[in-house]
Amino acid sequence: MKIGIYVFSGTGNTRIAAELLTESFRNSGADAEVISIEDFTKSKAIPDLSKYDMIGIGYAVHAFDAPWPAYDFMRSLPESPGKQLFLFKSAGDFFWNGGSSSKVRRTLVKKGFDVFHETLFVMPANVLMRYPDAIIKNLYTIAKKTAEKSAGEILSGRRALAKNGMIKRIFTRLFSSAESFGVKRMGRRMRVSAECNRCGLCWRECPTGNITEGETRPVFGKRCSLCMRCIHHCPKYAITPWLKFFRLKEPYNMKKIVADKTIPDDALKSVDKGFYKRYRGYFEKRGLL
Ligand SMILES: Cc1cc2nc3c(=O)[nH]c(=O)nc-3n(C[C@H](O)[C@H](O)[C@H](O)COP(=O)(O)O)c2cc1C
Ligand code: SF4
Ligand code: SF4
After folding, report:
1. Mutational pocket test of ligand 2: of 195, 234, 237, 239, the residue with most ligand atoms within 8 Å of the beta carbon
2. 285 occurs within a structural domain
3. Which helix (H) or strand (E) holds 184?
C-alpha cells in the first residue's frame, strides 16, 4: 500500500501531524510520504496521483475551514473515481471540531474520491494566544497518539467522518467567506519594522509567493493566505499584520520544545482550573491523556 499525504501547513503544525501519520503508517508496514501542497500552489503543476493507492489531504484550519491554497489544490486534482482519500486538519482548539468539513468533502467527492475518514489534530494556536511550552509539548504527545489511532483506522478501511450539522455549516460558511475576502487584503498591509535585516527568509519561504524583496523592505502582494509563516519565522520578528493582536506575543517552535527534555510532556494531566481545564476533559474522554 502506497499512501501520498498532501499537506498545506503555514507554521508547521499540520506538517508535524502529516509526519506523525507517516511514521504510524510505516510502523504498520505501509509506505507513505508527505508532499507539500505549496509546491503545486506556486508551480500550478497537476499532481500525479496514479502512483498512490490512497491519498491523504491535510490543512491548517483557518476560520473553521480550509485556507484558499488548500482549496485551489483540491480543485486542481484530476478526476479520480473511487480513489480512497482521508482528511486531516490541525486547529488551535477543539471547538466545533475545527468547523465544518462539508465544503472540503463536497469539493473532493465531485472529483470522484471516496472520502472515508477524517481526523482533527488539536495543536497550539498560531494566532491570538501563545500557549505555554508545557501545553505545546503535551499537545504533541497527544497528536502522536491521535496519529497512531487514525492510521490504524485508515489502514483497516474504517469509515469515520465528522458530523457537520446545519448551524456548524452556516457559521463555517460565514466565517470562512469573510476570512477569504479579508486575508488577501490584510496580507497587503503587513508592516515590517526597521529591525528587518533583509535576510530574505520571508520571501523565500512564503507558500504562495506573495512576498518580493522590495528596495528597502519586503513587499507584500495580493496572494496572502495569512498562514503566519513569514511572521513566525522572521528571525527579527519584524513583521506585524494589520490586525496586530492576531500575532502571538512570541512565536514558538514545536520541534524545539518537544526536544527540550526539561519540559514535561504531560502538563494537561494536572491542570484543574483555567483555560486549559477543558482540554483535559476533552482528551480524557477520548482516551488520549
Ligand atoms: C488565519 C487563521 C485562522 C485560524 N482560524 C482558526 C479557527 O477557526 N479555529 C481554530 O481552532 N484555529 C484556528 N487557527 C489556528 C490554526 O488552525 C492552528 O494553530 C493550526 O495548528 C496551524 O497550523 P499550521 O502550523 O500547519 O499552519 C487559525 C489560524 C490562522 C492563521
Ligand atoms: S524574514 Fe524578517 S528580517 Fe528577514 S527579510 Fe523578512 S522581514 Fe526582514
Ligand atoms: S505573506 Fe506571509 S502570511 Fe501571507 S501567505 Fe506569505 S508567508 Fe503566509
Report:
1. 234
2. no
3. helix 166-188
